[in-house]
Amino acid sequence: MKKIISCFLIATSSVVWAQTGINTENPKATLDITAKKDILTIDGLLAPRLTRAELTEKGNTLYGAEQDGTIIYINDISGGDTQSQRKNIDGKGLYIFDADAANKEGRWMCLFCYGFA
Fold first, then answer.
1. Which domain of life is it from (predicted)?
2. pTM for the full predicted model
């Protein structure tokens, strides 16, 4: 029985580490998302949406070196603060976390922002 389980685990391990595709049988990258061609289908990718107040509630230690490159969308800046990691969040838009910024404290940097709201 142990040999059967071992063989099964070895056989399925390649599937676990394989590329993942959504709407495609042959992914060309780690994650390959292919749009549906149906005219009634809404295509796109939604980044996690947070208000600045919600991000402020998470504090200044949750995001660190392991979250370098994390992307979020800030959809409201009426609450929260611009202290520490949030210093650059002054408008709606896409932000990326740069863990090396500010002497390794990390900062959210604007990828595409709408300016001051």
1. Bacteria
2. 0.77
